[in-house]
Amino acid sequence: MRKSFTKNPREIKMSEILKEQFEKVIKISDVDFEYILSHFTFKKFRKHQFLIQENQDVIYDYFILSGCVKSYFIDQNGKTHILLFGVKDWWITDYEAYYYQKKAIVNIDCLEDTEVLCLSNENREKLCRELHQIEHFFRKKTNRRNVALQNRILSLLSSNAKERYEQFLREYPELVQKLPKHILASYLGLTRETLSRLYSSK
Amino acid sequence: MRKSFTKNPREIKMSEILKEQFEKVIKISDVDFEYILSHFTFKKFRKHQFLIQENQDVIYDYFILSGCVKSYFIDQNGKTHILLFGVKDWWITDYEAYYYQKKAIVNIDCLEDTEVLCLSNENREKLCRELHQIEHFFRKKTNRRNVALQNRILSLLSSNAKERYEQFLREYPELVQKLPKHILASYLGLTRETLSRLYSSK
DNA sequence: CATATCGCACAAAAAAACTGTGATGTAAAT
DNA sequence: ATTTACATCACAGTTTTTTTGTGCGATATG
User: What nucleotide is nearest A195 when CA is compared to C1'?
Assistant: First the structure.
Protein backbone atom coordinates (compact mmCIF):
# COMPACT_ATOMS: atom_id res chain seq x y z
CA MET A 1 0.00 0.00 0.00
CA ARG A 2 1.50 3.28 -1.03
CA LYS A 3 1.41 6.27 1.23
CA SER A 4 1.49 9.08 -1.28
CA PHE A 5 -1.08 9.77 -3.96
CA THR A 6 0.96 9.52 -7.14
CA LYS A 7 -0.70 10.19 -10.46
CA ASN A 8 -1.42 7.37 -12.82
CA PRO A 9 -4.47 7.70 -15.10
CA ARG A 10 -6.62 5.51 -12.87
CA GLU A 11 -5.91 7.56 -9.82
CA ILE A 12 -6.39 10.86 -11.56
CA LYS A 13 -9.89 9.70 -12.42
CA MET A 14 -10.47 8.74 -8.82
CA SER A 15 -9.38 12.04 -7.47
CA GLU A 16 -11.81 13.69 -9.89
CA ILE A 17 -14.68 11.65 -8.48
CA LEU A 18 -13.67 12.61 -4.98
CA LYS A 19 -13.44 16.26 -5.90
CA GLU A 20 -16.91 16.16 -7.41
CA GLN A 21 -18.21 14.75 -4.14
CA PHE A 22 -16.52 17.44 -2.14
CA GLU A 23 -17.84 20.16 -4.37
CA LYS A 24 -21.41 19.14 -3.74
CA VAL A 25 -20.84 20.29 -0.20
CA ILE A 26 -18.04 22.81 -0.10
CA LYS A 27 -16.12 25.01 -2.50
CA ILE A 28 -12.39 24.33 -2.49
CA SER A 29 -9.51 25.51 -4.57
CA ASP A 30 -7.35 23.14 -6.59
CA VAL A 31 -4.45 23.77 -4.28
CA ASP A 32 -6.52 22.95 -1.22
CA PHE A 33 -7.82 19.86 -2.90
CA GLU A 34 -4.33 18.69 -3.74
CA TYR A 35 -3.51 19.12 -0.10
CA ILE A 36 -6.57 17.19 1.03
CA LEU A 37 -5.76 14.41 -1.39
CA SER A 38 -2.29 14.07 0.04
CA HIS A 39 -3.89 12.88 3.26
CA PHE A 40 -5.59 9.99 1.49
CA THR A 41 -4.19 6.61 0.61
CA PHE A 42 -5.31 4.48 -2.29
CA LYS A 43 -6.12 0.92 -1.29
CA LYS A 44 -7.50 -2.17 -2.91
CA PHE A 45 -9.36 -4.85 -1.01
CA ARG A 46 -10.04 -8.28 -2.33
CA LYS A 47 -13.29 -10.14 -1.91
CA HIS A 48 -14.00 -11.02 1.70
CA GLN A 49 -11.27 -8.87 3.11
CA PHE A 50 -12.36 -6.72 6.00
CA LEU A 51 -12.33 -2.96 5.79
CA ILE A 52 -13.24 -2.69 9.43
CA GLN A 53 -13.35 -5.56 11.85
CA GLU A 54 -14.73 -5.92 15.32
CA ASN A 55 -12.30 -4.98 18.06
CA GLN A 56 -10.20 -3.06 15.59
CA ASP A 57 -8.51 -0.12 17.21
CA VAL A 58 -7.50 1.93 14.22
CA ILE A 59 -10.50 3.09 12.25
CA TYR A 60 -10.32 4.69 8.84
CA ASP A 61 -12.76 6.55 6.67
CA TYR A 62 -13.19 4.93 3.30
CA PHE A 63 -14.44 6.53 0.14
CA ILE A 64 -15.52 3.74 -2.20
CA LEU A 65 -14.32 4.06 -5.75
CA SER A 66 -15.51 0.72 -7.11
CA GLY A 67 -16.95 -2.52 -5.85
CA CYS A 68 -19.40 -3.07 -3.07
CA VAL A 69 -19.08 -3.59 0.66
CA LYS A 70 -21.49 -4.71 3.31
CA SER A 71 -21.80 -3.46 6.84
CA TYR A 72 -23.11 -6.05 9.27
CA PHE A 73 -23.02 -7.50 12.72
CA ILE A 74 -23.49 -11.00 14.08
CA ASP A 75 -26.03 -11.47 16.84
CA GLN A 76 -25.95 -13.83 19.81
CA ASN A 77 -27.37 -16.67 17.72
CA GLY A 78 -24.61 -16.32 15.16
CA LYS A 79 -26.94 -14.86 12.57
CA THR A 80 -25.64 -12.14 10.32
CA HIS A 81 -27.56 -8.89 10.02
CA ILE A 82 -26.65 -6.59 7.19
CA LEU A 83 -27.21 -2.95 7.99
CA LEU A 84 -26.35 -1.43 4.66
CA PHE A 85 -24.38 -1.75 1.48
CA GLY A 86 -21.71 0.63 0.43
CA VAL A 87 -21.35 1.26 -3.26
CA LYS A 88 -19.46 3.68 -5.50
CA ASP A 89 -19.17 7.22 -4.14
CA TRP A 90 -20.16 6.22 -0.62
CA TRP A 91 -18.30 7.03 2.52
CA ILE A 92 -17.76 4.32 5.07
CA THR A 93 -17.12 6.14 8.29
CA ASP A 94 -16.57 5.08 11.85
CA TYR A 95 -20.25 5.69 12.35
CA GLU A 96 -20.97 2.29 10.81
CA ALA A 97 -18.41 0.65 13.00
CA TYR A 98 -19.96 1.94 16.16
CA TYR A 99 -23.60 2.14 15.28
CA TYR A 100 -24.63 -0.18 18.02
CA GLN A 101 -21.92 1.17 20.24
CA LYS A 102 -21.38 -1.23 23.07
CA LYS A 103 -24.15 -3.63 22.21
CA ALA A 104 -22.82 -4.98 18.96
CA ILE A 105 -19.88 -4.22 16.81
CA VAL A 106 -20.14 -3.99 13.09
CA ASN A 107 -17.83 -5.54 10.54
CA ILE A 108 -17.36 -4.01 7.16
CA ASP A 109 -16.72 -6.75 4.69
CA CYS A 110 -15.78 -6.53 1.08
CA LEU A 111 -18.18 -8.17 -1.36
CA GLU A 112 -16.06 -7.88 -4.42
CA ASP A 113 -12.68 -6.47 -5.24
CA THR A 114 -13.06 -2.98 -3.99
CA GLU A 115 -10.98 0.11 -4.47
CA VAL A 116 -11.10 2.84 -1.88
CA LEU A 117 -9.56 6.08 -0.87
CA CYS A 118 -8.56 5.68 2.71
CA LEU A 119 -8.31 8.40 5.37
CA SER A 120 -7.15 7.62 8.88
CA ASN A 121 -9.03 9.28 11.72
CA GLU A 122 -5.78 10.88 12.70
CA ASN A 123 -5.46 12.46 9.27
CA ARG A 124 -9.10 13.41 9.30
CA GLU A 125 -8.72 15.30 12.54
CA LYS A 126 -5.66 17.01 11.22
CA LEU A 127 -7.51 17.99 8.07
CA CYS A 128 -10.46 19.26 10.04
CA ARG A 129 -8.24 21.42 12.17
CA GLU A 130 -6.32 22.82 9.25
CA LEU A 131 -9.08 23.29 6.73
CA HIS A 132 -11.95 24.28 8.87
CA GLN A 133 -14.75 23.73 6.38
CA ILE A 134 -13.88 20.12 5.67
CA GLU A 135 -15.44 19.11 8.93
CA HIS A 136 -18.82 20.08 7.59
CA PHE A 137 -18.37 17.71 4.67
CA PHE A 138 -17.71 14.70 6.81
CA ARG A 139 -20.47 15.49 9.27
CA LYS A 140 -23.07 15.97 6.57
CA LYS A 141 -22.20 12.63 5.01
CA THR A 142 -22.54 10.84 8.30
CA ASN A 143 -25.84 12.42 9.24
CA ARG A 144 -27.37 11.59 5.92
CA ARG A 145 -26.41 7.96 6.40
CA ASN A 146 -27.87 8.02 9.87
CA VAL A 147 -31.32 8.95 8.62
CA ALA A 148 -31.25 6.47 5.75
CA LEU A 149 -30.33 3.63 8.07
CA GLN A 150 -33.07 4.36 10.56
CA ASN A 151 -35.67 4.61 7.82
CA ARG A 152 -34.64 1.23 6.54
CA ILE A 153 -34.89 -0.47 9.89
CA LEU A 154 -38.38 0.94 10.35
CA SER A 155 -39.51 -0.22 6.92
CA LEU A 156 -38.10 -3.70 7.51
CA LEU A 157 -40.30 -4.10 10.54
CA SER A 158 -43.47 -3.04 8.83
CA SER A 159 -43.64 -4.93 5.53
CA ASN A 160 -43.69 -8.48 4.25
CA ALA A 161 -41.11 -10.24 2.12
CA LYS A 162 -42.50 -9.27 -1.26
CA GLU A 163 -42.91 -5.62 -0.36
CA ARG A 164 -39.39 -5.42 1.01
CA TYR A 165 -37.97 -6.99 -2.12
CA GLU A 166 -39.91 -4.66 -4.39
CA GLN A 167 -38.85 -1.65 -2.39
CA PHE A 168 -35.23 -2.69 -2.71
CA LEU A 169 -35.73 -3.20 -6.44
CA ARG A 170 -36.92 0.39 -6.74
CA GLU A 171 -34.19 1.82 -4.54
CA TYR A 172 -31.16 -0.05 -5.89
CA PRO A 173 -32.06 -1.72 -9.20
CA GLU A 174 -28.37 -2.08 -10.10
CA LEU A 175 -27.54 -3.89 -6.87
CA VAL A 176 -30.17 -6.57 -7.49
CA GLN A 177 -28.16 -7.71 -10.51
CA LYS A 178 -24.83 -7.40 -8.79
CA LEU A 179 -25.32 -8.87 -5.34
CA PRO A 180 -25.22 -12.58 -4.65
CA LYS A 181 -28.78 -13.49 -3.80
CA HIS A 182 -28.00 -14.87 -0.36
CA ILE A 183 -26.53 -11.54 0.64
CA LEU A 184 -29.48 -9.64 -0.70
CA ALA A 185 -31.75 -12.05 1.17
CA SER A 186 -29.88 -11.41 4.37
CA TYR A 187 -30.24 -7.68 3.87
CA LEU A 188 -33.98 -8.04 3.43
CA GLY A 189 -34.19 -10.27 6.49
CA LEU A 190 -35.16 -13.34 4.46
CA THR A 191 -33.59 -16.66 3.58
CA ARG A 192 -32.14 -17.09 0.12
CA GLU A 193 -34.74 -19.77 -0.63
CA THR A 194 -37.62 -17.49 0.16
CA LEU A 195 -36.11 -14.74 -1.92
CA SER A 196 -35.51 -17.10 -4.81
CA ARG A 197 -39.14 -18.19 -4.71
CA LEU A 198 -40.29 -14.60 -4.57
CA TYR A 199 -39.17 -13.79 -8.08
CA SER A 200 -39.30 -17.21 -9.72
CA SER A 201 -42.87 -18.12 -8.72
CA LYS A 202 -44.21 -14.92 -10.14
CA MET B 1 -15.77 -16.13 19.02
CA ARG B 2 -16.05 -17.64 22.45
CA LYS B 3 -13.90 -16.50 25.32
CA SER B 4 -13.78 -19.61 27.44
CA PHE B 5 -12.42 -22.99 26.42
CA THR B 6 -15.44 -25.24 26.85
CA LYS B 7 -15.09 -28.94 26.22
CA ASN B 8 -16.58 -30.48 23.13
CA PRO B 9 -14.83 -33.53 21.65
CA ARG B 10 -13.13 -31.48 18.94
CA GLU B 11 -11.64 -29.09 21.43
CA ILE B 12 -10.57 -31.78 23.83
CA LYS B 13 -8.50 -33.25 21.02
CA MET B 14 -7.01 -29.83 20.33
CA SER B 15 -6.01 -29.26 23.88
CA GLU B 16 -4.28 -32.64 23.81
CA ILE B 17 -2.22 -31.60 20.81
CA LEU B 18 -1.26 -28.41 22.56
CA LYS B 19 -0.32 -30.26 25.71
CA GLU B 20 1.90 -32.60 23.74
CA GLN B 21 3.68 -29.58 22.30
CA PHE B 22 4.18 -28.07 25.71
CA GLU B 23 5.50 -31.30 27.13
CA LYS B 24 8.28 -31.44 24.60
CA VAL B 25 9.66 -28.36 26.29
CA ILE B 26 8.42 -28.23 29.86
CA LYS B 27 6.84 -30.52 32.38
CA ILE B 28 3.49 -29.22 33.63
CA SER B 29 0.79 -30.63 35.80
CA ASP B 30 -2.76 -31.15 34.55
CA VAL B 31 -3.98 -28.39 36.80
CA ASP B 32 -1.41 -25.95 35.46
CA PHE B 33 -2.27 -26.94 31.93
CA GLU B 34 -5.96 -26.35 32.55
CA TYR B 35 -5.02 -22.93 33.76
CA ILE B 36 -2.85 -22.21 30.73
CA LEU B 37 -5.61 -23.37 28.45
CA SER B 38 -8.05 -20.97 30.04
CA HIS B 39 -5.96 -18.13 28.58
CA PHE B 40 -6.46 -19.40 25.05
CA THR B 41 -9.34 -18.81 22.73
CA PHE B 42 -10.44 -21.14 19.97
CA LYS B 43 -10.84 -19.41 16.63
CA LYS B 44 -11.58 -20.38 13.08
CA PHE B 45 -10.39 -18.43 10.08
CA ARG B 46 -11.73 -18.85 6.61
CA LYS B 47 -9.64 -18.88 3.46
CA HIS B 48 -7.95 -15.55 2.82
CA GLN B 49 -8.84 -14.07 6.15
CA PHE B 50 -5.91 -12.39 7.83
CA LEU B 51 -4.51 -13.66 11.06
CA ILE B 52 -2.25 -10.66 11.31
CA GLN B 53 -2.36 -7.65 9.05
CA GLU B 54 -0.02 -4.74 8.55
CA ASN B 55 -0.63 -1.82 10.86
CA GLN B 56 -2.53 -4.05 13.23
CA ASP B 57 -2.08 -2.94 16.79
CA VAL B 58 -3.25 -5.96 18.69
CA ILE B 59 -1.09 -8.97 18.00
CA TYR B 60 -1.89 -12.49 19.03
CA ASP B 61 0.05 -15.71 19.20
CA TYR B 62 -1.57 -18.46 17.19
CA PHE B 63 -1.11 -22.17 17.58
CA ILE B 64 -2.27 -23.80 14.37
CA LEU B 65 -4.52 -26.79 14.78
CA SER B 66 -5.42 -27.38 11.16
CA GLY B 67 -5.06 -25.71 7.80
CA CYS B 68 -2.16 -23.73 6.48
CA VAL B 69 -1.16 -20.07 6.62
CA LYS B 70 1.42 -18.01 4.82
CA SER B 71 3.54 -15.26 6.22
CA TYR B 72 4.56 -12.68 3.65
CA PHE B 73 5.27 -9.09 2.88
CA ILE B 74 4.79 -6.96 -0.21
CA ASP B 75 7.81 -5.05 -1.46
CA GLN B 76 8.00 -1.64 -3.08
CA ASN B 77 7.24 -3.11 -6.49
CA GLY B 78 4.08 -4.73 -5.24
CA LYS B 79 5.58 -8.20 -5.42
CA THR B 80 4.66 -10.67 -2.71
CA HIS B 81 7.41 -12.47 -0.83
CA ILE B 82 6.46 -15.45 1.24
CA LEU B 83 8.68 -15.95 4.24
CA LEU B 84 7.27 -19.15 5.56
CA PHE B 85 4.25 -21.41 5.79
CA GLY B 86 2.60 -22.28 9.02
CA VAL B 87 1.11 -25.73 9.25
CA LYS B 88 -0.35 -27.93 11.98
CA ASP B 89 1.37 -27.65 15.37
CA TRP B 90 3.16 -24.42 14.45
CA TRP B 91 3.20 -21.25 16.43
CA ILE B 92 2.65 -17.98 14.69
CA THR B 93 4.10 -15.38 16.98
CA ASP B 94 4.52 -11.65 16.78
CA TYR B 95 8.03 -12.40 15.62
CA GLU B 96 6.65 -13.03 12.14
CA ALA B 97 4.72 -9.84 12.24
CA TYR B 98 7.75 -7.75 12.98
CA TYR B 99 10.47 -9.66 11.29
CA TYR B 100 11.43 -6.79 9.10
CA GLN B 101 10.60 -4.33 11.82
CA LYS B 102 10.35 -0.90 10.33
CA LYS B 103 11.36 -1.79 6.83
CA ALA B 104 8.47 -3.96 5.86
CA ILE B 105 5.51 -5.32 7.67
CA VAL B 106 4.40 -8.85 7.32
CA ASN B 107 0.89 -10.09 6.75
CA ILE B 108 -0.22 -13.50 7.90
CA ASP B 109 -2.81 -14.77 5.53
CA CYS B 110 -4.91 -17.85 5.74
CA LEU B 111 -4.56 -20.27 2.85
CA GLU B 112 -7.40 -22.56 3.74
CA ASP B 113 -9.93 -22.76 6.50
CA THR B 114 -7.71 -22.75 9.50
CA GLU B 115 -8.38 -23.51 13.13
CA VAL B 116 -6.15 -21.98 15.76
CA LEU B 117 -5.71 -21.56 19.44
CA CYS B 118 -5.30 -17.91 20.04
CA LEU B 119 -3.38 -16.18 22.80
CA SER B 120 -3.28 -12.42 23.15
CA ASN B 121 0.04 -10.85 24.02
CA GLU B 122 -1.59 -9.51 27.11
CA ASN B 123 -2.53 -13.02 28.20
CA ARG B 124 0.87 -14.30 27.23
CA GLU B 125 2.59 -11.79 29.44
CA LYS B 126 0.27 -12.62 32.26
CA LEU B 127 0.98 -16.31 31.82
CA CYS B 128 4.70 -15.72 31.72
CA ARG B 129 4.59 -13.76 34.92
CA GLU B 130 2.42 -16.26 36.70
CA LEU B 131 3.89 -19.51 35.49
CA HIS B 132 7.51 -18.69 35.23
CA GLN B 133 8.63 -21.62 33.08
CA ILE B 134 6.14 -20.93 30.29
CA GLU B 135 8.31 -18.12 29.07
CA HIS B 136 10.96 -20.62 28.13
CA PHE B 137 8.47 -22.45 25.95
CA PHE B 138 7.54 -19.42 23.95
CA ARG B 139 11.09 -18.20 23.59
CA LYS B 140 12.35 -21.54 22.40
CA LYS B 141 9.65 -21.72 19.76
CA THR B 142 10.48 -18.28 18.48
CA ASN B 143 14.21 -18.87 18.36
CA ARG B 144 13.82 -22.11 16.48
CA ARG B 145 11.74 -20.32 13.87
CA ASN B 146 14.33 -17.59 13.66
CA VAL B 147 17.07 -20.01 12.69
CA ALA B 148 14.90 -21.87 10.20
CA LEU B 149 13.92 -18.66 8.47
CA GLN B 150 17.48 -17.42 8.13
CA ASN B 151 18.62 -20.76 6.78
CA ARG B 152 15.92 -20.63 4.18
CA ILE B 153 16.79 -17.16 3.02
CA LEU B 154 20.43 -18.18 2.66
CA SER B 155 19.54 -21.30 0.70
CA LEU B 156 17.26 -19.30 -1.58
CA LEU B 157 20.16 -17.10 -2.53
CA SER B 158 22.58 -19.89 -3.22
CA SER B 159 20.71 -22.45 -5.29
CA ASN B 160 18.92 -22.63 -8.60
CA ALA B 161 15.25 -23.29 -9.24
CA LYS B 162 15.45 -27.05 -9.47
CA GLU B 163 17.49 -27.40 -6.32
CA ARG B 164 15.14 -25.18 -4.37
CA TYR B 165 12.15 -27.15 -5.52
CA GLU B 166 13.75 -30.47 -4.66
CA GLN B 167 14.79 -29.24 -1.27
CA PHE B 168 11.23 -28.14 -0.57
CA LEU B 169 9.99 -31.53 -1.75
CA ARG B 170 12.22 -33.21 0.80
CA GLU B 171 11.33 -30.84 3.62
CA TYR B 172 7.57 -30.60 3.17
CA PRO B 173 6.39 -33.39 0.86
CA GLU B 174 2.82 -33.02 2.11
CA LEU B 175 2.70 -29.31 1.32
CA VAL B 176 3.65 -29.86 -2.32
CA GLN B 177 0.35 -31.68 -2.80
CA LYS B 178 -1.65 -29.24 -0.75
CA LEU B 179 -0.46 -25.81 -1.81
CA PRO B 180 -1.68 -24.06 -4.94
CA LYS B 181 1.29 -24.06 -7.27
CA HIS B 182 1.47 -20.29 -7.66
CA ILE B 183 1.88 -19.93 -3.93
CA LEU B 184 4.56 -22.57 -3.78
CA ALA B 185 6.29 -20.82 -6.67
CA SER B 186 6.21 -17.55 -4.83
CA TYR B 187 7.72 -19.20 -1.77
CA LEU B 188 10.55 -20.60 -3.86
CA GLY B 189 11.10 -17.24 -5.49
CA LEU B 190 9.98 -18.47 -8.90
CA THR B 191 7.07 -17.84 -11.23
CA ARG B 192 4.34 -20.40 -11.43
CA GLU B 193 5.24 -21.11 -15.06
CA THR B 194 8.83 -21.91 -14.27
CA LEU B 195 7.76 -24.16 -11.44
CA SER B 196 5.24 -25.90 -13.66
CA ARG B 197 7.94 -26.60 -16.24
CA LEU B 198 10.30 -27.86 -13.56
CA TYR B 199 8.26 -30.95 -12.82
CA SER B 200 6.48 -31.48 -16.15
CA SER B 201 9.55 -31.35 -18.41
CA LYS B 202 11.37 -33.96 -16.38
C1' DC C 1 -56.42 -24.79 9.34
C1' DA C 2 -54.35 -21.49 6.08
C1' DT C 3 -50.59 -18.47 5.20
C1' DA C 4 -45.95 -17.00 5.31
C1' DT C 5 -41.63 -18.18 5.90
C1' DC C 6 -37.74 -21.08 7.43
C1' DG C 7 -34.44 -24.91 7.03
C1' DC C 8 -32.46 -28.92 4.94
C1' DA C 9 -30.89 -31.49 1.00
C1' DC C 10 -29.39 -31.85 -3.41
C1' DA C 11 -28.34 -30.89 -8.16
C1' DA C 12 -27.56 -27.71 -11.96
C1' DA C 13 -25.33 -23.58 -13.46
C1' DA C 14 -22.08 -20.03 -13.23
C1' DA C 15 -17.95 -18.04 -11.71
C1' DA C 16 -13.42 -18.13 -10.06
C1' DA C 17 -9.18 -20.26 -9.24
C1' DC C 18 -5.70 -23.12 -10.74
C1' DT C 19 -2.63 -25.26 -14.10
C1' DG C 20 0.03 -26.24 -18.30
C1' DT C 21 2.23 -24.66 -22.33
C1' DG C 22 3.81 -21.96 -26.36
C1' DA C 23 5.95 -17.72 -27.83
C1' DT C 24 8.94 -14.22 -26.71
C1' DG C 25 12.10 -11.31 -23.75
C1' DT C 26 16.20 -10.50 -20.83
C1' DA C 27 20.30 -10.49 -18.22
C1' DA C 28 24.35 -12.88 -16.69
C1' DA C 29 27.74 -16.40 -17.68
C1' DT C 30 30.68 -18.67 -20.90
C1' DA D 1 27.48 -13.69 -29.61
C1' DT D 2 25.55 -17.68 -27.77
C1' DT D 3 23.87 -20.34 -24.26
C1' DT D 4 21.62 -20.77 -19.88
C1' DA D 5 18.19 -19.88 -16.60
C1' DC D 6 14.96 -17.83 -15.74
C1' DA D 7 10.79 -14.09 -16.40
C1' DT D 8 6.58 -12.27 -18.80
C1' DC D 9 2.53 -12.48 -21.54
C1' DA D 10 -1.31 -14.83 -23.52
C1' DC D 11 -4.55 -18.25 -23.61
C1' DA D 12 -7.07 -22.39 -23.03
C1' DG D 13 -8.36 -26.55 -20.45
C1' DT D 14 -9.38 -28.29 -15.87
C1' DT D 15 -10.76 -28.22 -11.25
C1' DT D 16 -12.89 -26.20 -7.42
C1' DT D 17 -15.94 -23.16 -5.28
C1' DT D 18 -19.81 -20.36 -5.20
C1' DT D 19 -24.25 -19.35 -6.42
C1' DT D 20 -28.82 -20.56 -7.54
C1' DG D 21 -33.32 -23.10 -7.98
C1' DT D 22 -36.51 -26.21 -6.11
C1' DG D 23 -38.84 -30.11 -3.62
C1' DC D 24 -40.28 -31.34 0.90
C1' DG D 25 -41.22 -31.05 5.60
C1' DA D 26 -41.20 -27.97 9.87
C1' DT D 27 -42.80 -24.11 12.39
C1' DA D 28 -45.14 -20.19 13.98
C1' DT D 29 -49.02 -17.05 13.87
C1' DG D 30 -53.46 -15.31 13.35
Answer: C5
